[in-house]
Amino acid sequence: IINLDFLAELGIQKRNPAFSTGRTFATLDPSRATRKIVSPTDGEVIAEVEMATQEDLDHIVATSQKAYENWKTLPAPRRGEIVRQIGEALRKYKDPLGKLVTYEMGKIYQEGLGEVQEMIDICDFAVGQSRQLYGLEMKSERQDHRMFEQWHPLGIVGIISAFNFPVAVWSWNAMIAAIGGNVCIWKPSEKTPLTAIACQNILQDVLKANDLPEGIFSYIIGDAAIGASMSHDTRIPLVSATGSTRMGKKVAEAVGARLGKSLLELGGNNALIITENADVEMAIRATVFGAVGTCGQRCTSTRRLIVHASQYDKVKERLLKIYPSLSIGHPLDESSLVGPLIDNDAVDAFKAAINKATSEGGKLLIGGDSYSKEGLSSNYVHPAIVEAENHYQIVQDETFAPILYLIKYDGEVENAIRIQNDVKQGLSSAIFTNHLLESEAFLSAAGSDCGIANINIGTSGAEIGGAFGGEKETGGGRESGSDAWKAYMRRQTNTVNYGRVLPLAQGIKFDI
Ligand code: UN1
Q1: CA dist., res. 120 & res. 83, Å (int)
Q2: Catalytic site residues (predicted)?
């Protein structure tokens, strides 16, 4: 029996409001459609949420527009101070929020805590960033002219997040957007809205204490139609979306049709290469965490393991020894390393992918079936390893589940790099080697084509300080650290003439 006190601590009720504009939440209304939120861990209904309507979205957008008028004029370091307080509040609620992430999403508690830590870290990062929204000064070609650039906010940022990182990915977007002077409307995944409501409850105190207007941080709980409305809405200049490539293409099409901005973080098909010069034990640790961590439901999960022929048998043997010992179980039980998949559809997709792989010629080496135990939901599976070839259609696709495709390569590292790049997605990649020439080849222009390329580190578990995202069907967006803040801003080039005459650029003579 698990202790569910964290629900009350986070203000989660039996029935929860469809939206909030900050301090104010929608009043509960029995006539609204609702959705039951079932924990993937034990199949119990955690709570119900009311679903928002198109009119609710209109109300939120109008409120956000008003808030923006005020928020954009605050000095950026003042906005940073608000974000600092949000980070402090998150520190206070790290335990219960980590538990709710675990209970609603199914990742193990250590990872739930890790996710909240990412939120805290991005707050710290954003506080510093709030004093560093730097523009360049350029040297003007004209006498007595000064040329420079400024970064101004865009306005409303729509954030569509996925179930697998139900809160961290929102915070990367929202905190960076906020210090830049934007206001945010968050549509969490329909599968994990309770964590969003919990975040809003945590935020609310900070907004109140600072007497801030409604509409700076809002959430809206809705289905794909609400996401589509946000994508089409010209009042939302930027839509940042995380999720499947299929969803991302729809968002990009809708936003593109109105020439708005989108920031996309979509599917990955991440490979880890083990060369003949690798420290195999280190590579195995990285592979196992990458493949079975979060039950294979990270964008950065390791899906393909590309192993040099000289190491292949050893790697296979080690993995087949470790996989049976992985403790599968309730993710709040601290001894579990592998929790459940998010729902039954995900279990079906897992099994269908394995069938597809074997029908294309792959060999299932281990796992692939359901894991059942009293008190647990039917969403648990035994992580699978399949010997496969990169060109199989199923290997080309991202299946959001713990399936590791084992692929052999011969000869030079270039052969492995070619295999790793030969997919539609380009999020994360890793190579294990102690050979300088191999690692440099991997990082060169002819190397990995992914947004993330690691040496002797696995594909998942990136730090917030770097820009996060990838190429090709991964969508091209970059979130979180480095200069990702620029995606939430508009650049303005300014030229000032402090002389008494009007010279034209390019030396043009135009005498009137
Ligand atoms: C995601 O799966 O959408 O690099 C984000 C990682 C995490 C974030 C993953 N820091 O695995």
Answers
A1: 10
A2: 265
pLDDT score for 155: 98
Q: Which pLDDT tens digit goes with each residue over 320-349? A: 999 999 999 999 999 999 999 999 999 999
Residue 478's pLDDT is 98
Is the CB of 171 inside a 6 Å radius of any atom of ligand 1?
no
Which residue's CA is minimally distant from atom 3 of ligand 1? 299
Q: How far is 106 from 380, CA to CA, in rounded Å?
A: 10
Token code pair at residue 445: 């222009």
The pLDDT of residue 2: 85
Closest CA to 16 of 50, 55, 51, 54: 50
| Residue among 269, 284, 309 at smallest CA distance from 408 | 309
DSSP class of 467: E
* Annotated catalytic residue within 265, 438, 473, 479: 265
**Res 262: pLDDT:** 98
**298: CA distance to ligand 1 center in Å?**
6
Separation of alpha carbons 378 and 401, rounded Å: 15
Question: Parallel, antiparallel, or unpaired for β 45-50 and 15-16?
Answer: parallel
ipTM computed for the complex: 0.98
Q: What's the confidence (pLDDT) of residue 372?
A: 97
Q: According to the model, what pLDDT value does residue 295 have?
A: 98
**What is the dihedral angle through the alpha carbons of 202, 208, 212, 215, rounded to the nearest 10 degrees?**
50
438 classed as catalytic: no
User: Is 437 in contact with 461 (CB distance < 8 Å)?
Assistant: no
Atom of ligand 1 nearest to the CA of 118: 10
Closest Cα to residue 128, out of 464, 474, 504? 464
Cα distance between residue 236 and residue 160, in whole Å: 12
Going from the Cα of 506 to the center of ligand 1, the distance in angstroms, rounded, reads 48
Spatial distance between the Cα atoms of 218 and 20, rounded to a whole number of angstroms: 5
Whether 57 lines ligand 1, by a CB cut-off of 6 Å, is: no
Give 237 Cα–ligand 1 centroid separation in angstroms: 25
Whole-angstrom distance, CA of residue 287 vs CA of residue 43: 29
Q: What ligand 1 atom has the least distance to the C-alpha of 301?
A: 11
Query: pLDDT under 70 in the chain at which residues?
Result: none
297 CA to middle of ligand 1, Å? 9
| Ligand 1 probe mutation, 125, 164, 468, 480, most atoms within 8 A of CB | 468
Which pTM was predicted? 0.98
Q: Using alpha carbons, list the distances in angstroms from residue 98 to 90, 101, 107, 120, 176.
A: 10, 5, 10, 12, 22
Asked if residue 467 has its Cβ within 6 Å of ligand 1, the reply is no
Structure tokens at 419: 């295999």
* Minimum-distance ligand 1 atom for the alpha carbon of 300: 11
CA distances from 150 to 137, 466, 495 (A): 9, 23, 11
Residue 302 CB–ligand 1 contact under 6 Å: no
Q: Are 223 and 188 in contact (CB under 8 A)?
A: no
Helix (H) / strand (E) element for 170: namely helix 168-179
